[in-house]
Each structure stands twice: as C-alpha cells, then as structure tokens.
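Re: the 484-residue chain
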Amino acid sequence: MTVELADATSTEAERKHPASKVKHRTPTERAEKGKAARAKVPRRALGEWGPPPNRADAVDILEEQARTRVAELVPVRYGRMLVSPFTFYRGGAALMAADLAEAPRTGLHAQLCGDAHLSNFGAFAAPDRRMLFSVNDFDETLPGPFETDVKRLVASFAVAGRDRGFEPKVRAGINATVGRSYRESMRRFASMHNMELWYARIDVEDIVREFAKRATGKQQKRLAKNVAHARTKDSLKAFGKLTEVVDGNRRIVSDPPLIVPVEEVVEPGQEQRAHEAFRELVRVYARTLTGERRRLLEGFRYVHAARKVVGVGSVGTRAWIVLLLGRDNDDPLFLQAKEAQASVLEPHLGKSQFASHGQRVVEGQRLMQAASDVLLGWFNTQGLDDVERDFYVRQLWDAKGSVLLDVLEPSGFEFYARLCGWTLAKAHARSGDAVAIASYLGTSHVFEEALAAFGEAYADQNERDYRALKDAVESGRVTAETGL
C-alpha cells in the first residue's frame, strides 16, 4: 500500500519555515566541537576588553535608536537612564551589542536573551500557577554565541555592585560566582537526558527554602513579603489600580506621559476608529494562539486601551495596555501589546529568520523560558500613521516579581548570582549544544575568572558612556526628563 502525504496538510508556518535536517552527533563529537572552539578562542580571551579606536559615539547610538521611537517619550528614556550608571546600563543594550561585535566569537550558538542583565530575571506564575524563576525579557532575543549573554549578565553584576558601594574584592567574588554557576550548571545540563533538561526549572518555593538556610530573619521576612506581593500582581490588581468608572463604563486612568488613554493619543474625531482597530487587533493576535487558548481569549470583550511607558531601555517604543472583560464587569483581563523592533544584535549577528519581530520575540521566549504565558502571541499592523509595526502580546501582570537590588547585602547578591547563572545556562542548554558549550567551559576556574575581569573592565566603559550622556544633556545636545 502506498501512502501519500499531501502538502495541503502542512501548516502555513511549516511551509514558510520547513524543518531543516538536523545532524545528530554523538556526545564525543559534540565535546570535540567545544574543545575546538577553545583552541580558536581561549577562555582567557573572553576577559579582554578595551574600546577600539574607531568605537562609535555612545550618544550617537542612542540617538539612532530614538529615530524610530515616540519623540515625546525619548527624554523620559534618557531621564531614566541618567538615574545611575546601573539604570544607564539597563538602557544600553545597543551599546554593548556593538562593542561585543568586535570581540572574538566561540561559534557555539544558543538562543540569546540579548539583554541578559540581572534585572531581566525574575519570578512569574507558570500555567500551573506555581511561581517560577526564569529569564523574563526577550525584546532583543536572537540566536548567537552563548558568551554574549554571559558577558552582559556578569557585567550587570559588576555595575550593580558598584552602585551598591561594594568593595572591589567583594564585587570580584560575586562576578566570578555568576560565571562559575553558569559553567557548573551547563556541565550538569550536558549530562541530562533531553526531556529531563527541557522540564528542569526553579520553583520560587525552592528559592525561599534555600535562601532561609543562610539568611537572617529580617532577610527572610523581606523575601517572603516580596513573593507575596508578586502573587497578588495580576489583572484584578491592575483593574483596581489602573482603571476608573467614567459615565458608567470602565476606563483606564489618564496619567500622562506614563499612561495615556487612546482617546488622548489619536487626532480628534478618530476615537471610534481607534477602538475598532484595537478590537480587530485582538482578533488578529488571537490567531497566533493555540486553539484552546484562543477559545479562552474569545470569552473576553475589548473595553479600552492606553499607551503606557514601560521599563528603561524600552521607553519610547510603542507599548499599549488593553483592558478586556469576561463573564461580567468584575472579570478583567489586562494585556500588554509591546512594539517589537529589530533586535540590537541583528546588525552584528544577522537578521532574524522570522519576518515579524513580534514572532521573533515570542519564539525566543518559548525556547528560553521555563514556562511561558498562556496568552503569549503577536501581530503586525499598520498604525494610524500608516507605518507598519510588529508587536508581541502577553498578560500585563501575571504574578510577576523582581529582586529588590537596593536592599540586598553581598551575601544576597552572591545567592542571586548563582540563581541567574543557573537560569541562563538552562535557557542556553534548551536551544544550544549543552555538551559542546560545557566542553568549552571545562572544569577549571579559567572561564569565571576571565568573565569577572571582563565585568569590571566593562563597568568602567559603562561609566564613561554614562558621563557622555550626562554631558550631552548638560550641553543641550539631547533632552532628559527626570522623575518619571
């Protein structure tokens, strides 16, 4: 009997991105690949940093990004970046991407976060409603050499340690802990069965128990309070905080420039057209969800939308919060539709395989994160200004929580460094060749010592760039709006 497979059974996504032939190498062959990479780029070479003579002006790079952003919000972005060298670092992913493009590359690729600083890790509720800890920002995600993410993570600890006033010796220990945790974790992941690796994750309850072994009573109470706060951060809380009743209808509050209802963004007379556009976009976005999740979303109706300023590096990109209501007027769902522009890595690592940057973000998140938002999806649209833009969509608040850096003592930083190192290694092991990367990293302390040195050297560069932006504001070259 002959069985024919009709091409018509393929999904549209499969036809656009057909499965490539995968070479299944033996563990020995994969380990040899890692050793070959080490011969090409010695681990100590990862610790080297010095600005090249032709390095682009930092403010020029930031201004180039500003060209595609909401002009009135760019000063808010600069104001947030100027709070401290650490907040500047958070907004400077494009600067570091350009710098690392000049560095030697191992050629051992994984799906990169692209902006793996320590504040882009945190807690959130998984679909089974257990609180997990994982990477939680993917705006810049793209495949690339694994060390790109590790360098950005280690340097973020160096910058944050300076921000907290830690002594150089203390910072050096914390920086090395990040690299050591990544190396040791990657070696464990390399020994796991494929399915075991895929399901590995860190529950917040496990973090609390582990932290309690070495923390003071005061520190334990602070962590418990932070976790409890994160658990309550959901659509119901956003409903109470971000909405009000106007003429009998729920509306998102106006708090410009941070929150601006859609009626205040569009031209007079265009309000109804804008609301109809949002209703249609919800329907378009729903098509990127799986069947059962699309059915869940269809139980909600569109009510209102507003532009919202988010983060530090993302300020100026278009981000909307969308209010929907379910079974009654007390059953809210808040979605966030965030503009996805080209990754800051693309000029240096090549374009994404996905035509939509919204899909690029979603696919990267699904690869890297321990468990993803059930309503994660994307759409692209032509705005009222007739410009085509890509967006990704997720729940606005879904029990999200982040570390309180301003209260962590060195021991807390050390603990957090181990968590982030494990988490990043796990994300890379899911998408990259864990055996090859582990082979490259080896069993000695060379890797973490090199990365710790890089972190401090790049923290120096970050301070120079921070001062450059400060000087640009003082000279009137750019405008910064503080306190927002």
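The CA atoms of residues 7 and 14 lie 10 Å apart.
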